[in-house]
Design brief:
Layout: H1 2-21, E1 73-74, E2 77-80, E3 84-86, H2 87-90, E4 91-92, E5 101-104, E6 111-115, H3 116-123, E7 138-143, E8 146-148, H4 150-165, E9 173-177, E10 184-186, E11 193-199, E12 205-211, E13 222-237, E14 252-258, H5 265-268, E15 272-273, E16 288-289, E17 292-294, E18 299-306, E19 309-317, E20 321-322, E21 326-331, E22 336-344, E23 347-351, H6 352-365
């Protein structure tokens, strides 16, 4: 009887629990995506002797968001290094078709524009449909290059001709070209090479051809002719030098020119120009003079020196003169002309011997012979 009673009590309890779970307030039809869930711990009562920490559900790792692929977009201006223009040169985010060639590049060192409509037509067969033109009407394309200068060609010729001409030191030789040398463009990082070279030892004339790397394009070689010359270091002005202007080191530079009679920069500094000198003109010794420290009719200070005595008076220069020059000077106090040596700007010096000679000469000229 006791077992039957226990079974009946259990059945009643189970019916009550089933009725509780059937309540609509727990099985709500509202979607879970609209629920404001907050993760919290749920405590389960256990006997005191077997107490355990509450269980906390683990948070699920967040899934990474998938980034949208960047949209192809047109560039405003580009520089290419090869002879063809690829899709990736003109379009950003071109993807797998970036290396597909669509146009021929301009000539080396040249620029050209291509309309945006032509770019759209060229990339459409390669499945670039939604191209963002950014409002650009045309794309400017420049072909990268570098210019070959006269000095570079000259250096290569001097290096090649030095041994043939018998010069151990190639710094003492140079070349002059027949006619004007025209600047040419070659591919970036390329080097022109001598394809052919002939040289006449007697006349020192040369005839050479240079290969011009064009980044894949075959180009006609550059032919140059001229004469091998001996050179020397010369001094040239960096700016126009007026007559009588004193030269400073900042006014001059040293260059290598065809061998000629020039002066060293040490000899030029501190001297004055006899005539106007042009920038780049080779300065020769005949172009220079000692700077004039006293001009004609300048007021000067005359210093008389005698053993144990120095006397200074005012005078007037009758001649111009540089340092060390002997000029005629009028002593304005005695109204006598003396010969004096220029010692500085506005300064002249008279010794007792030079004073005596001039005094005797003046007396003789007046009709009173010297005794």
């Amino acid at each position: 009887m006791i077992r039957i009673a226990i079974f009946i009590v259990a059945a009643v309890a189970a019916s009550a629990a089933a009725a509780q779970f059937a309540d609509t307030s727990l099985l709500s039809p509202v979607p879970l995506t609209n629920e404001g869930w907050a993760t919290r711990a749920v405590a389960v009562p256990v006997p005191v002797a077997q107490e355990r920490p509450a269980l906390i559900p683990a948070a699920l790792p967040a899934l990474p968001e998938r980034a949208e692929p960047a949209r192809p977009a047109l560039k405003h201006a580009v520089t290419v290094t090869g002879e063809i223009v690829r899709i990736g040169d003109l379009v950003e985010n071109a993807g797998v078709v970036a290396e597909v060639a669509i146009f021929r590049a301009p000539d080396l060192g040249q620029s050209g524009s291509v309309p945006a409509a032509r770019v759209l037509d060229a990339v459409r067969p390669h499945h670039i449909i939604q191209l963002d033109t950014r409002g650009i009407d045309e794309v400017m394309v420049t072909r990268a290059s570098r210019a070959i200068t006269t000095k570079e060609i000259e250096a290569r010729l001097v290096s090649a001709l030095g041994s043939q001409a018998g010069f151990a030191d190639t710094r003492n030789i140079g070349v002059t070209f027949d006619g004007e040398f025209r600047t040419v463009q070659i591919a970036p990082n390329a080097e022109p090479g001598i394809a052919r070279l002939s040289y006449n030892q007697q006349t020192r004339r040369f005839d050479a051809s240079f290969d011009l790397p064009g980044g894949g394009t075959r180009r006609a070689p550059l032919r140059v002719t001229g004469v091998l010359i001996e050179t020397s270091e010369v001094v040239v002005p960096l700016r126009a030098i007026a007559a009588a202007e004193v030269l400073k080191s900042s006014d001059l530079m040293v260059e290598r020119r065809p061998k000629t009679e020039g002066v060293s920069i040490e000899d030029a500094v501190g001297l004055a120009a006899k005539r106007q000198l042009r920038p780049g003109q080779v300065i020769r010794a005949t172009d220079l003079m000692k700077p004039e420290l006293v001009a004609r009719n300048d007021t000067v200070t005359i210093t008389y020196e005698a053993p144990g005595m120095v006397l200074s008076v005012r005078g007037k220069a009758l001649d111009p003169g540089a340092k060390g020059d002997v000029i005629s000077v009028l002593n304005v106090q005695s109204n006598r002309t003396v010969q004096a040596t220029v010692t500085g700007p506005g300064l002249v010096n008279v010794t007792t011997s030079s004073t005596r000679v001039v005094s005797n000469a003046s007396t003789t000229a007046a009709g009173n012979p010297a005794r």
